[in-house]
User: Fold this.
Amino acid sequence: MLEPGRVSLAGGVPGMSGAEGSPEAGITIGELGEFGLIDAITARMPAAPGAIVGIGDDAAVLRVADPRIVATTDLLVQGRHFRTDWSGPADIGAKAAAQNLADVAAMGAVPEALLVGLAAPSGLLVAWATELASGLAGEAARAGAYVVGGDVSEASVIMLAVTALGTMAGREPVTRSGARPGDVVAVAGRLGLSAAGLALLQAGLTEPADALAAHRRPQPPYPAGPQAAAAGATSMIDVSDGLLADLGHIAAASGVLIDVETARLEPAGPLLAAAAVLGLPPLDWMMSGGEDHALAATFPSDAAVPPHWVVIGHVHEGHGVRVDGTNYRGQFGWQHFS
Assistant:
């Protein structure tokens, strides 16, 4: 999601983003029609080996090893959640998949499948829609999942509704409500780099490229979710709205106080480079910037924190989130309708 005060509108219907050599070049989805569009999108989606019934029927039927299904969904609207002048269609598709698949991993689950609804103006180029499909399929594959169905419709702007499904693989789900005083707080994945990329785009800058790429295509650490569950994580969450904001959800659900220690937050090189260009403090992005889709979790103090997880704080009796033992005066993160 864009940060508070950072809502922006993309102008017009996007072009084909470098697809001039494809068979669909210059053809709109209105000209191709609903079923032609479905066929074009389906051609970009690998068949799911675990699907008894895949794309093309009234509904998909999946074969899963665990009867407990994890389900999550997100709605993305052009101009509110993405801009077509800042991100190509494959980037938008990959990001839409990532933010849902990260929620599955945050439950300690293994991603299995995506269902995707696409609404778009009839003047949208078919090539744009098929590149979007490629981005969705590619990110799903990175998580070990597949697109197994969806729907298309006409709308005045591009909208994506993505539902992700996962399975617990024999483990119990890790919720937001299990943190206890004495636990340690840890994170896996990048923090702040997507927010830095957004700030660069808003400033009209094209470097550092790593920060821009992080905003366009977040890289959630999908395996870290099941690893944390296996290691005894007491709570977990996808960092989508900002580290402090999302730790606040754990604190509220668990009835505890979480204290983040800034000395443990080490800005990565690309984050420092973006901060130098913009003259802004990198820790602000790490604490309040969303859309990196890192994972944050709490572990018992005597548990072995898994590799790739970094301890950044502790859980205490009380309520809310503090930074270095004091109330944080900066921005906590993104919040809809505020």
Remarks:
- The first helix runs from residue 29 to 32.
